[in-house]
Amino acid sequence: MFMVVFAQVGFAQSNLPACNGNFTSPCFAEYRFPNGNRYIGEWANEQFHGQGTFNMSNGDVYAGQFVYGKNHGQGTYTWANGQRYVGQFVNSLKSGQGTYTWPNGNRYVGQWSGDRNNGQGTLFYADGSKYIGQWRDSKQEGKGIYFKADGSISQEGIWRDNVFVQALNPPVSPPSNLYEENIRTERAPVRPAAPPRTIVQQNPVD
Predict the structure, then answer these.
(1) Which long-range contacts (CB under 8 A, 24 or more apart) does 139-146 make?
(2) Tens digits of per-residue pLDDT, 71-87?
């Protein structure tokens, strides 16, 4: 529970009434905290509750839904270093569907659980390549496909701890002389005759 000891500094548009020092009933207010944090949004039971924006003194910003003091629902968390997550939160952890972007241009789009990549997701690399597949604890784990920047498949199979370990349905290399043998194989000519005779295939011509 938040102690009501912070100075009220202003209001912004909201369907809720102004708190006016009473944060028990749903209301709206902007507060600056002694440590430099600032929150503007909706309150209930003396906690962030509803829609709001929380600016932290370290430069991080969360804008989205709150449930009794926790990031819960749809929201955007932007770190001071430029990283950003847009998606669903459960009890202040990234959970559900979301997109995480790094300053270098890499981007993950997919499922989250417990603040980590878990489930199905796609990691887009800045160079145009991408990995589509399964994740566990923010690592490539399970079935997946790695595509080159030109769209061709580089690796398809099983991944363990971010390492490709087994190909699925690996292509079988044909014998080097298969093409030549197909070209050299001939069939005996069919000649009208009575009674018909069986057509047999000759041996390859040397």
Answers:
(1) 143/168
(2) 999 999 999 999 999 99
Q: Provide the total of helices (H) and of strands (E) in the chain, helices listed first.
A: 1, 14
Torsion of CA 5, 11, 17, 21, to 10 degrees: 20
Q: What are the residues whose beta carbons fall under 8 Å from the beta carbon of 42, sequence distance 6 or more?
A: 14, 16, 26, 27, 28, 48, 49, 50, 51, 52, 66
Query: Is the pLDDT assigned to residue 158 strictly greater than 60?
Result: yes
* Cβ partners under 8 Å of residue 76, min gap 6: 62, 63, 64, 84, 85, 86
Nearby residues of 116 by Cβ (< 8 Å), 6 or more positions away:
94, 137, 138
* Structure-block tokens of residue 99: 């997109």
3-state secondary structure of 184: helix
Beta-bridge mates of residue 67: 70
